[in-house]
Amino acid sequence: MPYRVRGVVAPAKNAPAVLTEIIVPDPGPGEAVVDVAACGVCHTDLHYVEGGIGDEFPYLLGHEAAGTVSAVGPGVTQVRPGDYVVLNWRAVCGACRSCRRGRPQRCFATHNATQKMTLVDGAPLSPALGIGAFADKTLVAAGQCTVVDAAAAPEVAGLLGCGVMAGVGAALHTGQVGPGDSVAVFGCGGVGDAAIAGAVIGGATTIIAVDLDQRKLDWARDFGATHTVNAADVDPVAAIRELTGGHGVDLAIDAVGIPQTYHQAFYARDLAGTVVLVGVPRPEARLDLSLLDVFGRGGTLRSSWYGDCLPERDFPMLISLYLQGRLPLDRFVTERVGPGDVPAAFDRMARGDVLRSVVVL
């Protein structure tokens, strides 16, 4: 029998998100239904509301989630009812040319559930990032479920599903930070602070946080930044060079995704250093760089999509680090709210008042 549950829906572009009843079908082949326990409020959800990602309204919002599998469809073997899982938005196919070459984290054919969740009147919903987890239950592809240690509370475990994984992975996987490296992180929201935490795990000894908001710089120190630069007061490139003996950093991570911060990251790195873009740019953003400087400075320019993660490898590992006290996931959670509080949480997020609001269901 289909399930009739609550869900937070964006009905149209720039229309306020509403809490309403939705219909979740029984899982079909390769699918699973998950009872959502908690889901983080991410900027990506707000981008859906604003029409910045697509126009397939109405959207069922929410994607940074943890919960318990309640039902699985035919052919599902990787999870079973009762499993405690973190949801991911990149269920790898195992058959594309990238997967066949042993690089599943770069899968070209990731997939979601085949069936549609709907409004009560039958209108199909587009789940945010193929998940749609501001809901009591959601339908996903079974490969979007990653089993983790249930000792981690869902309010923190779910954050691995997007922002934290993106930031940690940008440092560890894409940027390949190593012992003794110097790192600069531009933008100290949730993703940037996760990149700082990833740099700590990787063994970086100089970690420079850059932002325009002093509150965020103070938060960045809690995640392991050794130095902070307020770009509202000083030239961040000059400040970073001064902190690194005039050389620049080994790794510069742009967690904002605007031309100005990318330009700063490019010139704040040492010769042959690495730039990683993990902040998601707007479609209209354009970058103007001297091609001679791109050639002459050498190094690597990389984009990080979901932190180059492989959920089945990385989620359990990061939960283990959290339980060991080596990854401060609790510090990301600023507040816990109910599903009806999502619009107000969007406002606080847009003002920069929170690192993460988490919807508890």
From TrEMBL:
Q: Which residues form the Enoyl reductase (ER) domain?
A: 7-361
Annotated signal sequence is none
Pfam families assigned to the protein according to its UniProt record, in alphabetical order: ADH_N (PF08240), ADH_zinc_N (PF00107)
Lineage, top-rank taxon, reads Bacteria
User: Which cofactors, if any, are listed as required?
Assistant: Zn(2+)
Which residue stretches, if any, does this entry annotate as coiled coil? none
Q: Which SMART domains match?
A: PKS_ER
* Keywords per UniProt: Metal-binding, Oxidoreductase, Zinc
NCBIfam families to which the protein is assigned, alphabetical: mycoS_dep_FDH
- Family per record: Belongs to the zinc-containing alcohol dehydrogenase family.
Q: What is this protein called?
A: S-(Hydroxymethyl)mycothiol dehydrogenase
Q: Which organism is it from?
A: Pilimelia columellifera subsp. columellifera
